[in-house]
Structure formats: structure tokens, C-alpha cells
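Hi R.,

Here's the input for the molybdenum atom complex you asked about:
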Amino acid sequence: MTTRRRFLEMGAGGLAIPAVSSLSLPAWAGKVWQPDELPEGAVAQGLLEALPGKVPLIKRSYRPPNFETPVDYLRDVITPNNAFFVRYHLSGVPTVDAKTWRLKVGGDAAGSALELDFDSLRRDFVAQEIVAVCQCSGNRRGMFSPHVQGVEWGVGAMGNARWKGARLRDILARAGVKKEAIEVAFNGADTAPLPATPDFVKSIPVDIAMGENTLVAWEMNGKPLPHWNGFPARLVVPGWTGTYWVKHLTDVEVRSKPLGGFWMNPAYRVPAGKFPAADPFRTQATAANTPITDIVVNSLVTSLRDGQRFHAGQVIDVAGIAWDGGRGIRRVDVSVDSGRSWQAAELGRDLGRFSFRAFSLKFKADRKGPAVVMVKATNNRGDTQVPELIFNPAGYHHNVIPRIMIEVA
Ligand SMILES: Nc1nc2c(c(=O)[nH]1)N[C@H]1C(S)=C(S)[C@@H](COP(=O)(O)O)O[C@H]1N2
Ligand SMILES: [Mo]
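And here is the predicted structure with molybdenum atom in place:
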């Protein structure tokens, strides 16, 4: 596969890039950016553009807003709110007033109907905090070969934050959950501009909904949720891909029957049997396919660029982040000789099993010439990143071991 990275000067002149803590002006400032390791021509250039309240992010589409986080902001294990990626399916992004916002809980398998305002959500339940990765199912879709349809994400359709909210199970307990409940469905305040476009409604299995980690969150990294990330409250489903993390949450429905609708089927499905390590979603599975569920084990090198040059004798840091769907990262192995030998990287602070985990391996570049750096994360169940892409038509679960070309001169 031809790999390359392109930096093109942007015609429109420099962008004002606010400084990020511990980083100097990012290398991509004022540039058109393309993620590493893209098959030639796979992704249209991503222009940096700032949504209100956000630093310039990589624009994949404007209506609906789909903006990814530049790699430089993923060096820190906690992603800053103003650099956190933004993903919407419908262009009617709502501006929600916390004073008039209500969360309605009901459904045929709920004991009774319930309505909460923002104050009661924050006051009447024990607040929980959890650090968890929100990763779009289609993160890295733009790196799929052969090419697949959908938003052409590079590597930044993900972020890691400390979420604070009420346990969904405590809210559901208040309404009551009947024995026949099989799924819990979620709707947000966003709407489709045309009646023909289906509303974005998602469900999760009742055991995930009742799990101790699933939250209705109102805070992200100690601040109110940013508008673009679901103000005033969103669902947080640690371990599961971003599609279930419904933003601007308004309706929770406890169901005795599987949820239908476009966004459950055919959207967000993977072929049956292709990802056998994944959490099952039994009430939605068919013989052909099953909804995407938990995040596969993965890593991102943030310290090196494809094609980067070094001097002989220089110490090179292969550093980045690793994560998975909640088993936790056991080890990250690094190879600097095209996979012939591997060394265990040092792992950073453990912020919990749903969080990004930093890794670093320093080596001295004493052999001149090109070298291929590879990184492979392994979780506590022994799942590892894959050597070859597991192709699926929607472009999900890209966790291929990277091959980063560097040059020692
Ligand atoms: N209301 C609403 N919630 C939503 C979506 C949406 O389109 N509307 N998209 C989902 C998808 S597919 C992802 S990946 C995450 C992205 O979260 P973020 O925009 O906060 O980064 O939001 C999820 N929640
Ligand atoms: Mo997504």
C-alpha cells in the first residue's frame, strides 16, 4: 500500500490556533492536513475550521457537522473539550435551553412514566465519574482499502474525557423496569431537516443500560457539556462505540421489543462472525449481521510522522495512546525493525479500563537508512490489533497494526 502524508499550504492564510497545554503551536497550524497511512486519494483534504467554542478541527462535512480532532490534541490522555470531535447525522443541531429541557422516561416495559428537569437530574441521583473513550464506529474509515462509503474519517473521530452524571440504572429504577424489558432506547433533541430522513434513535441491551458504568452525563472534564457534544445531557456508554452515546438526550424508552428504524438496521451493523470478541447484542442480531457494540483494542502513535527524518544516534520516542472496549490495556509492544523483534513499551498512568492509556518506548537510532516502526496493543483478555484489515462494508473497527516509515540519516 502506498502510504504518505501530505501537508499543503492553505490559501486562506493563517488560522488562529489557541495554545494547548503542554504543546507549542501545533505543526498543522495553517495547513491542510491529511491523516497518516492513507491509500493514495482515499480522503479528500480535511480543512481546519473552527465551530463556535471549538479550536479549529478537521472538517469532514459542514451540514451535518462532522469535525475530527487533529492528532496533536490526542497526545494528552484527556482530550480537551474545545478540541473534542463532533459528529452528527442530522443537520438540525438543536440549541437546548437547560431551563426548559426535560428528560422523559417511559416505554411499554417501564413501570411508570417519569419526567426530570436539569436540576432534579443533578440533585436527585448520586453523581458518578468515569473516564471513557468516545470513539465513532467509523473512525479511520478513510483508511479503508478498498474504499467504503461514509464520512471519511482519519484517526481523530475519538476522544477521551472524564464524564460526570447520574447512573442510568438509578433513573430507570425510579421509573421501574419490568421483567419483559429487553432494550432501552434513546432519542435526542436533534431533528431531520426533511421528513424523509429518519430521526436518530438508538437502543442498547437492557443489561448494558442497567450496568454500573452507563451514565446520563452533564459534565465533561469538570465543565458543562459543550453544545456540540450534547448539552445539557448525553448518554455515556463506556466501552461501546460513539453511536450509542446519544447527545441532547430527551427521551428514554424501556422496551419489550427490539427497536427498529434506519439507525439500528441497516446502519451501524457488522457482518456476523467477523468480530467474534465483540459484546453480543442478541435482541438485534440477524443471521447476516449484528449491531456494532464494543470498541476493538487499538493504539495511535502521536509522536512520529510517516516519513519523519532523524539523525543517527538520536533517541526516538515512539509514544502515543492505547485503548479498548473496557478490558483495559495489558501491554503495548513496539517494533522498530518491521516486526522482526518487539519490545514492551512503558505504560502511563491508569485512569481506568475505559480510558486512553499513554505508552512510550525510547530507542537510539544507530542504524542508518529507512526503518519501519510498528505498534501493537493488547488488552487484558489477550485481544490484539490485527495485522490485516478486517474488511466490512460500513468501514468500522479499523485497528490494523500501523507501519510508520522513518528515515535515519
Ligand atoms: N443526538 C445525537 N446524538 C449522537 C449522534 C447524533 O447524530 N445525534 N451521533 C452519535 C455518534 S455516531 C457519535 S460517534 C457520537 C459522537 O459524539 P461527539 O459528537 O460528542 O464527539 O455521538 C453520538 N450521539
Ligand atoms: Mo459515530
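One thing worth noting: Helices lie at 118-123, 168-175, 206-209.

Cheers,
M.
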